[in-house]
Design a protein that fits this description.
By secondary structure, this protein is α/β, with parallel strands linked by helices. It is built from 17 helices and 27 strands.
């Protein structure tokens, strides 16, 4: 038995359940079951980026734990085909193998296309399952697939048999007693395991704050029918492409109302093709019209079904709202129906899309009061029914934001689960289960990985911060010409983009030249190393970093802005005539900070802080009295004579020398 599978007391073997995503958030549902040397994954989804994640396409959980333990991965279980449950699998397969993936036919069919596109089809084996099938994963896990009802067809809850007891993992669910596809929730099997004894229930918490039962999917049919039949022109409907039941009803209503259907959006085309191929959706071929020919169909006989219900910038409806779609333009006679509700975090983008469509003159139907959308996640009474059927000894609410988890735990308490038998956890927390106990173990590393639009490049924290700086305060680029013997040989060129500032170009150039001069005077010996050859070895990156840090602090202090600063150094040969900067002749009124180091707190390579020149340089000032000027002249003359007669001692790194005045 491995140390990781023993309880915190180090004695009793335990089951460890480790969520890497889906807690305190909506999306990227990923969970790991561990016992002995066996690791089993349940789902691996993605989430959508927030507004501050510039250039990020999808958000995935940090899989460091899985990469470190990839030799122990025995397989994966997929509950259903929504993106927040399978969207990350093809990316993860680029970094570690998964021996086998078990899941529903529809979900694995959709996953096949993603794997082909990512080029990872050889990294795993896909195995489809049917209701009540039992699969063995590793030596310690037996998983039974229990049919449930959800907004997507072919969805399952799981009964996982382990050495410490049976775990019910609900996945996404609601209790729909009139499912569109006729596949009922297998309540009998849940009750069977409840009677036999369930050690722990891990249950979907998405709608834990909503009282009552979730309405059945079929309840939106008459409301959609009313809006479609009363529309005088084209009908444009947007919904989740993966909502197979909703899409099936829309196609049924198109036939009923004598309308041809045009499909827009890659995911909509792919999902409908897969669903029809597998028999989850029935519609004649003549119902569909290629989008390039849709303008030949009369408006009264046209229905456009598309993606974009979440205001995604590149989705079909969003492009139409901006007037950027090549085939479709909004008409004042159009009726546009949002048959979906915004995912938390997408509300602003959805509202903006609705506003743009209304400005173009279309009639837009949206909102909960219209009865054109129902959730696929159970409300409080659905969650109570799940607790009543399974009768768990321990209870862990999952799949939801923190307030949802808290409310769901209270629902569990009301159903008889003791408070001490309930855990509220976060991503990376470890739930340790034995036949008689539940507790938190030592957490594992968890977080997020951000992918750009190629879904290949990882956007790390540094890149994201730079993008945020670009978006908020703009960018300053600097070109400085410096010779290999440490002299500025040309005026610094400064370029501002997106920076709102009261400083003129002359002041910015003066500040920049002052920073370059400071670095050459005070940091050059630490940044330049004489190797005995003809040319010294210069850390040009260090020079750039020092200039960037200094100018950044100056702009924060003087202008209260923090743009991204990029300094480029153009090396020049030794002996190139030095440029006499006028910036050094003007008074330097900046305060002297205690420690002026690099980006990580240190100054260059010496490890010491970078100090401002002290004392302040002495310069001729016409406003001074004649007596003061004579005294100063005598002091300067003595200092100059002393400097000529005796060589100046070498100063420790980080110290600064007094600048000579312009008069001397």
């Amino acid at each position: 038995m491995t140390n990781s599978s023993r309880s915190a007391k180090g004695q009793e073997p335990c089951l460890r359940v480790i969520p890497l995503g889906g807690l305190h958030e909506i999306g990227k549902n990923t969970c790991v079951f561990e016992y002995g040397d066996d690791l089993m994954l349940v789902d691996a989804g993605l989430a959508f980026p927030s507004d501050g994640m510039h250039g990020v396409n999808v958000v995935l959980p940090d899989t460091s734990f899985l990469r470190e333990n990839q030799k122990r991965i025995r397989g994966m279980i997929v509950t259903h085909g929504h993106e927040d449950h399978i969207g990350g699998i093809s990316h993860h397969l680029k970094h570690f193998n998964i021996p086998v993936i078990y899941g529903p036919r529809l979900a694995l069919s959709m996953l096949t296309g993603k794997m082909d596109e990512a080029g990872v089809t050889d990294r795993t084996t896909l195995q489809t399952v049917s209701p009540r099938d039992v699969v063995k994963v590793g030596q310690h896990f037996s998983v039974e697939f229990i049919r449930n009802t959800h907004s997507m067809a072919d969805s399952y809850s799981l009964a996982i048999t382990t050495p410490v007891g049976t775990i019910i993992f609900t996945g996404d669910f609601k209790f729909d007693h009139t499912p569109v596809d006729g596949e009922n929730f297998d309540l009998a099997r849940l009750a069977y395991h409840g009677d036999k004894g369930v050690l722990c229930l891990f249950s979907d918490s998405t709608n834990a704050e909503v009282p009552g039962f979730c309405p059945p999917e079929r309840s939106v049919f008459p409301n959609l029918d009313r809006h479609i039949s009363s529309a005088e022109g084209r009908v444009i409907i947007t919904t989740f492409a993966s909502s197979i039941h909703r899409v099936s009803m829309i196609l049924e209503l198109a036939i009923k109302n004598g309308r041809k259907v045009g499909l827009l959006g890659r995911s909509m085309l792919n999902v409908i093709a897969k669903a029809r191929e597998l028999g989850y959706m029935r519609a004649p071929d003549e119902l569909f019209v290629p989008i390039k020919q849709i303008n030949d169909v009369p408006d009264r006989e046209t229905l456009l079904l598309m993606t974009g219900s979440q205001g995604e910038p590149l989705a079909a409806l969003s492009r139409i709202s901006r007037g950027e779609h090549p085939q479709v333009r909004v008409k004042t006679t159009d009726t546009i129906i949002f048959s979906a509700s915004p995912i938390p975090g997408n509300t602003i983008s959805v509202v903006n899309t609705i506003d743009k469509l209304m400005m173009l003159g279309a009639k837009v139907v949206y909102g909960k009061d219209k009865g054109i959308h129902v959730s696929g996640h159970g409300f409080q009474e659905d969650q109570k029914l799940m607790l009543a059927l399974t009768k768990p000894k321990f209870f862990v609410p999952v799949h939801g934001e923190h307030r949802m988890l808290v409310q769901h735990s209270r629902t569990g308490h009301s159903m008889g689960v003791p408070v001490n038998n309930t855990l509220i956890i976060d991503n990376g927390d470890v739930v340790e289960l034995t036949p008689d106990s539940i507790r938190k173990g030592n957490p594992v590393k968890a977080g997020i990985e951000l992918l750009d639009q190629s879904r290949n490049g990882i956007v790390d924290a540094r890149v994201l911060k730079e993008r945020q700086q670009l978006a908020e305060d703009g960018v300053v680029t600097i070109l400085a010409a410096i010779s290999t013997d440490g002299a500025m040989v040309a005026p610094a060129r400064v370029n501002l983009r997106g920076v709102v500032t009261t400083a003129d170009a002359r002041k910015m150039s003066m500040w920049t030249e002052r920073e370059v001069g400071w670095v050459l005077e005070n940091r050059w010996k630490q940044l330049c190393r004489n190797t005995g050859g003809k040319a010294p070895e210069v850390d040009w990156m260090g020079v750039q970093r020092e200039v960037e840090v200094g100018l950044g602090r100056r702009m924060r202090r003087e202008l209260q802005v923090e743009p991204l600063i990029l300094c480029l150094v153009q090396p020049a040969p030794a002996g190139t005539p030095a440029y006499k900067s006028k910036a050094m002749e003007e008074k330097d009124d900046r305060p002297a900070p205690r420690n002026r180091g690099g980006r990580h707190g240190g100054g260059g390579h010496s490890g010491q802080g970078r100090r401002e020149p002290t004392p302040a340089p002495v310069r001729t000032n016409p406003a001074r009295t004649a007596v003061a000027e004579k005294v100063e002249a005598k002091v300067e003359a003595k200092a100059e004579a002393k400097a000529v007669s005796a060589p100046e001692p070498e100063m420790p790194a980080g110290r600064t020398r007094r600048r000579r005045s312009a008069a001397v």
